[in-house]
C-alpha cells in the first residue's frame, strides 16, 4: 500500500512538472488545478516519508528526522540559489531528475527492508493481514 501511495504521489509530481514544462498559459483556471495536484503530491511525500523514517529508524528517530530536515533545507537553499541563474525549463528538468532519483532510492530502501525484515516497512504486504500473531492475555 505504501509503495502504491508513494508511486501515486510521484506520478502526480511527474505529470504536473511535465505539463508545466510544455504548457503555455492562456487562462489562470488551470493554474489552480496544478497547484492542487502539486499540494496533493507534496502531502503524499511528506506524510509517507515521515512515517517511513519513523519505522526504519526505530530508536533513532530524533537524529533521523534532524538529518531529514537538514537535507530538505539544503535542497531548498540550492533551489533558491540556482533559481536566478537557470532558465525555468532547465530547472524543471533538474527537478524531474531529483524526483526520479528520490523515488528510486525510496523503492530501493523499501525492497532492501522487505528482504531484511520479511515484510513491508510501514504496511503489511499481504493485503492487510498482519504477520504478527495477536497477543493473548491469560486470566489467572
Succession of helices and strands: HHHH
Strands, count: 0
Largest sheet at a glance? none
Percent strand equals under 5%
Q: Kindly provide the radius of gyration, computed on alpha-carbon positions and rounded to a whole number of angstroms.
A: 19 Å
Structural classification: mainly alpha
- The outline comes out as globular
Cα distance spanning the termini? 40 Å
Average pLDDT for all residues: 79
Share of helical residues = over 70%
Question: Would you identify the regions where 5 or more consecutive residues have pLDDT less than 50?
Answer: 126-138
Question: Number of helix segments?
Answer: 4
Question: How is this structure best described in words?
Answer:
- This protein is an all-alpha fold and 140 residues long.
- Helix content is 73%, strand content 0%.
- The protein is built from four helices and no strands.
- Helix 1 runs antiparallel to helix 4.
- The longest helix has 30 residues, at 88-117.
- It is globular, with a radius of gyration of 19 Å.
List keywords for this structure.
mainly alpha; single chain; 4 helices; globular; 140 residues
In short:
This protein has 140 residues and is mostly helical.
Amino acid at each position: 500500500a505504501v509503495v502504491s501511495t508513494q508511486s501515486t504521489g510521484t506520478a502526480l509530481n511527474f505529470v504536473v512538472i511535465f505539463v508545466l514544462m510544455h504548457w503555455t498559459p492562456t487562462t489562470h483556471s488551470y493554474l489552480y488545478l496544478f497547484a492542487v495536484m502539486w499540494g496533493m503530491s507534496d502531502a503524499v511525500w511528506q506524510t509517507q516519508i515521515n512515517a517511513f523514517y519513523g519505522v526504519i529508524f526505530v530508536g533513532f528517530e530524533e537524529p533521523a528526522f534532524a538529518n531529514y530536515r537538514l537535507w530538505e533545507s539544503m535542497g531548498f537553499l540550492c533551489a533558491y540559489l540556482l533559481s536566478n541563474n537557470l532558465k525555468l525549463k532547465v530547472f524543471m528538468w533538474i527537478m524531474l531528475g531529483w524526483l526520479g532519483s528520490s523515488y528510486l532510492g525510496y523503492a530501493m530502501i523499501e525492497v532492501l527492508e522487505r528482504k531484511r525484515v520479511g515484510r513491508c516497512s510501514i504496511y503489511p504486504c499481504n493485503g492487510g493481514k498482519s504477520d504478527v500473531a495477536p497477543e493473548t492475555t491469560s486470566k489467572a
